[in-house]
Amino acid sequence: MIELNGSTLTLEQMKGIIYENEPIEIDTDSMERVRKSREAVEGIVTRGETVYGITTGFGKFSDVLIHNHDVDALQLHLIRSHACGLGDPFPEQVSKAMVVLRLNALLKGFSGVRPCVVERLRDLANEGVIPVVPSQGSLGASGDLAPLSHLALVLIGEGEVHYKGKIKSTEQVYQQLGYTPLTLKAKEGLALINGTQAMTAMGVINYIEAERILCQSDWIAAMTLEALEGIIDAFHPEIHKVRGYREQMEVAERIRILTSDSKLTTHQGEKRVQDAYSLRCIPQVHGASRQSVAYVKDKLEIEINAATDNPLILEDGNVVVSGGNFHGQPIALAMDFLKIAIAEMANISERRIERLVNPQLNSLPAFLSPNPGLQSGAMIMQYAAASLVSENKTLAHPASVDSIPSSANQEDHVSMGTTGARHAYQIILNAQKVLAIEFICAMQALEYRGEALASSAAQKLLARGREVVPSITEDRIFSKDIEALSKWLTSDPFDWSLKRIVGHTEYKT
């Protein structure tokens, strides 16, 4: 059970909720804050005060006064009119993260919603009733209005949901579970859609996936280093210590541990004096990507505990202030940084693939073919990897440098953070396939070198990999192998830390 209070949610807890279906509960003190902020909203309506989004219209309509008898209808019109999401839905895990993050933000007690709203969000997450949210249509300021409106539709019994592996109408699932649709009251519609929870939810999933593939990239790169008889001296601890980057030092240590008992790695001068950068600079490049991902983690752990709607009800309900916490710039910049970090990790992986298959760059059979000439082997795998990394270069263009005015120029600068988060996810998917290709090629190359000469870590990984993709003894449809291994890398519970490496049980990532 994970208790939410609006302030202490961690990415590790999000991982448990999203991937392991840990149930969530609401902190008692947080619910009291929710009640107090709701009382403030009801007082504003009763007194007929002019407060944005409660007794006025939205955006350019902020100067239009709404009469008391219309404040509930205002919220319904808001949700329906703003549900303009387009394109394919976000992955179900992202939409579930959206529900949890919206709930956590409301529990801070600055939004003015009734307790029944936060309770319904909790129940949706726990019951696995997850809104179907189109992934396109957000500008990333004024909040993720379009995507979050599709989330809010579910609370009022409209739209569609993921439920037990199928997409169904919300009305159908509500009837099945005995839920009654909510009638949104003053400010509640605005409180549900004014925020950064779509881009942040996508960012959370991106971070979790990026962290995993960065660990995998070290293992696979170490296997490639062995297959190419790489020079281990480049990973000497003092080289990395004198530069001073912690992440670089950690990657170098991981490579040393993974190859510690290898009979394939060499020393400078034995076969050549220096390796190419794609081998020699693994710590520098992988380490820099890890630095970037650490920056992303820091920003996400702030944002998942942030109040990002507008207006905010402050000082125990005595002050209501319109501000701009819905602007997604911090997450937009973080997602653009993440895109570059993962694209670069894939770039250097593709260069290692080239060194594995190019007979001019190694002493292995051309393209790792079982019969060079008659059979093409891994030739087109490198083409596929090159295509993916080239696509990543386009996707890595920063979304946050763009802006476009909206709402009759009232909202004249936006973050495009949700676009950046979506592109980061696609880069991660592409990078996963590039790693899968390097893994296939590295396994084949190690078998040519002699599996018994490889390190115990490489032998362990090779054995697991061969359960998914058999050795290349004849040309076949390799796209199936790439997809299968990519899926395995995503879902298999292989221990990518170094905790179980013999002689290094104390090491932790």
TrEMBL record:
It comes from the Bacteria. There is a cross-link at A141-G143 (5-imidazolinone (Ala-Gly)). PROSITE patterns: PAL_HISTIDASE. Contains an active site 4-methylidene-imidazol-5-one (MIO), which is formed autocatalytically by cyclization and dehydration of residues Ala-Ser-Gly. The keyword Transferase does not apply. Its main location: cytoplasm. This is Histidine ammonia-lyase. It comes from Halobacillus andaensis.
